[in-house]
Design brief:
This protein is of the alpha/beta class. It has two domains: 104 residues, Rossmann fold (3-Layer(aba) Sandwich), CATH 3.40.50; 185 residues, NAD(P)-binding Rossmann-like Domain (Rossmann fold). The chain is 32% helix and 17% strand. It is built from ten helices and twelve strands. Strands 8-7-6-9-10-11-12 form a seven-stranded parallel beta sheet. Strands 2-1-3-4-5 form a five-stranded parallel beta sheet, with helices on one face. Strand 9, helix 8 and strand 10 form a beta-alpha-beta unit. It is elongated, with a radius of gyration of 21 Å. InterPro entries: D-isomer_DH_NAD-bd, NAD(P)-bd_dom_sf.
Amino acid sequence: MLLLIATAGWSSERWAERMRQRFPDRDIQIWPDRTDDLAEVDYVLAWKAPAEVMRACPNLKAIFSLGAGVDHLLCDPQMPEVPIVRVVDPDLTERMCEWVVFQVLLHHRQHLQYTAQQAARDWAPLPQPSAREVRVGILGLGVLGARAGQALAGLGFQVAGWARGLKAVDGVESFAGADELGAFLERTDILVNLLPLTPETRHLVDHALLSRLARDGALGGPVFINAGRGGSQVEADIARALGDGTLTGASLDVFETEPLPATSPLWDAPNLVISPHVAADSDPEALSLYIEEQIRSFEAGGGLRNVVDPAAGY
């Protein structure tokens, strides 16, 4: 039995090391080092690897995404018709929650302004609204969005979430569907995107959408935070919105092209925090255990959990 690890932009060796510890009696190989006898491959652990790698494995039983997103697999219409398993792991969920809460607090507590004042040696306390005066809206109320929403509600923020269907999350007001998107945006001071990338969400966050955010909030203007998928945003529109005052601030961890090109206008946009897709870095130790449990259950006749619905896109 052979497990093939196929990643682009990551160190595959650290994943191979963990999987060899989990499965000492099995053959764990790394693409592209292993390109022969792909008929022996039972499982592929993938992150942004070329789709032909999976297509070249005729006896493949399942594909495990090594990151929260699965659009890197669903973008190929000729992907083998085998289960694709997405990551749902407490470690990844808590990492994402930490990052979202940190970015919300950074803008709420006006840290960018204080950083600029520090550089200018300017001691000037700013009026500080309380969390209960600030309305956070989360696009996407799956596992990640629900956890972040509950954490922010626990800090006193007014939290709402928007999804395709109504969700029941303690402390989070639920909006659903296209008919309620407008009302959701109009009550939102800080917009957080945690949506998966689907045909419906691609380029959803453009200048027109950002212009619908609340203008009467305690922060003096809206903020956009994205740790979902880079393809959900129109990056030129975000730079424009920061420049023309439609947004007063933003934090972006994901981008349509990664690494973010040096020519991107985002690098020079005002009041923007950029991080290199690290909001919820996949931990090989935690996720290798998750994958091991899934494979052992599957081979014992059980089902796989968190299998992607290709029609829905997640």
